[in-house]
Amino acid sequence: MTNTRIMIAGGGIGGLSLALTLHQIGVPCVVFEAASELRPLGVGINIQPNAIRELFDMNISAEALDKVGVPAKEWALVGQNGHEIYSEPRGILAGYNWPQYALHRGEFQLLLARIFCQRAGTDALQLGQRVTGYENNADGTVTALIKQSDGSTKRESGTLLIGADGIHSNVRAQMHPDQPPIHWGGAVMWRGTTRAKPIRTGASFVGLGTHKHRMVIYPISPPDPETGLAVINWIAEVTYDDPEKRDNIGWFRQVEISNFAHHFQDWKFDIYKTLWEPQLMLSIP
Ligand SMILES: Cc1cc2nc3c(=O)[nH]c(=O)nc-3n(C[C@H](O)[C@H](O)[C@H](O)COP(=O)(O)OP(=O)(O)OC[C@H]3O[C@@H](n4cnc5c(N)ncnc54)[C@H](O)[C@@H]3O)c2cc1C
Hints:
Oligomer: single chain
Shape: globular
Bound molecules: ligand 1
Order of helices and strands: EHEEHHEEEEHEEEEEHEEEEH
């Protein structure tokens, strides 16, 4: 008998959001995720109002999102002297009906996974299942070819297979075999979080520096009521002009701060003072 479910390769933010929507509209679906355990990987990610609208429509509440992030109030571009170049309000403050959220990417993915399993059942999210390819069947269905984390293989069928398996998608590679490899532009991002006092509005996305040498800094939690400290997500980024001469060793590697801090050692200014002053001045009539 034909299996009428939709199969989704990949249980990231894209795959899980799609799965929640399909479940909501009554379409059976199953998610095959390569990782054998979901862990809160990644750091800050900004979800724009149009996407938050979809999450609210899926009955994922602001209270649930507040546990994994914070509504963003502002986007600000700042020069290397710490002076503001441009800033604008975000989300509700910018006139949207929905907020923009700065979230912990990994905790947000786990939240989506938890809600999906509660609604669709734990069998609907299958871990340790890497989709390696697919076969189109004569009756119009599709068979996903799967390698399981124990090394065994299996075949699963459905009416549709959706590739939500990330930037190195196997599904896309089979569907578009002539696509060239992904081109690396030479940007290296060192990422982390620090507990610190949030600057500017308290929920500002700050881009500091130039397009080739910059920091991105924004809180992904509200300040602790006692200490005033929030979890601050940061990216220290340098773009090299000669990427072909450098090792493209992948993005998920732990390094010591001393590996990259020298790129930013001259960036010393009183960021709290410099960045707060324009805000205070604006509030004076
Ligand atoms: C571990 C991780 C950390 C990240 N951290 C950040 C961050 O801190 N900030 C930020 O802005 N963006 C981050 N990103 C990227 C960001 O989450 C995505 O670009 C965006 O959310 C789009 O999500 P996606 O679901 O399309 O892809 P992804 O988030 O890449 O998710 C793809 C999912 O598919 C799984 N998968 C891959 N191949 C297969 C396969 N063949 N079969 C089955 N499953 C497969 C992966 O394990 C993953 O769970 C991260 C992505 C990952 C995977």
